[in-house]
Write a structure and sequence with these properties.
Blueprint: E1 15-17, E2 23-26, E3 31-34, H1 50-73, E4 81-91, E5 94-104, H2 110-123, H3 125-130, E6 136-140
Parallel strand pairs: 5-6
Antiparallel strand pairs: 1-2, 2-3, 4-5
């Protein structure tokens, strides 16, 4: 099922050249970054890559949706931490992604955190965008260091 916005309130463009060993520019934000294929994928490593950018974007979006879910459920999420991990691996002739998200909300029992995290996953635009296409595992509690 497609989730279509009723109205676009913000749009951003990114110009990309050179693929995984190229560069990405967001002209309206005066942002430019070099990209490097991870060493584990046969590249030089040592730089940003599409998976890192996706993890950052998804994590930030999930964090914002967490605040919305917390407000809806009467839970303070102001001290929360969202950790988003994006993996990539072979799938047939191409590659596929998987996502793991860990949610920590200090001072709350695990059942409450799970309830808020589940609602967050329903509200998050990134979660909606990849629903039924990319496996997403959501965990709660303090992540292992």
């Amino acid at each position: 099922m497609a989730h279509t916005p009723q109205k676009i309130v913000y749009r951003v463009e990114a110009d990309c050249t050179g693929g995984r060993d190229g560069a990405v520019t967001i002209p309206t934000l005066d942002f430019q970054a070099d990209l490097r294929t991870p060493e584990k994928m046969g590249g030089p490593g040592g730089g940003l890559n599409p998976e890192a950018l996706f993890a950052a974007g998804y994590g930030a979006c999930f964090q914002s949706a967490l605040a919305l879910a917390g407000k809806e459920l009467g839970v303070d999420t102001s001290d929360s931490l969202v950790t988003c991990s994006v993996g990539i691996g072979p799938e047939g002739e191409s590659f596929a992604l998987s996502v793991m998200i860990n949610v920590e909300i200090p001072g709350l029992d695990d059942e409450t955190v799970k309830r808020v995290a589940t609602r967050t996953h329903q509200l998050c635009p990134y979660s909606k965008a990849i629903a039924d296409n990319v496996p997403v595992q959501i965990t709660t509690g303090q992540k292992s260091k």
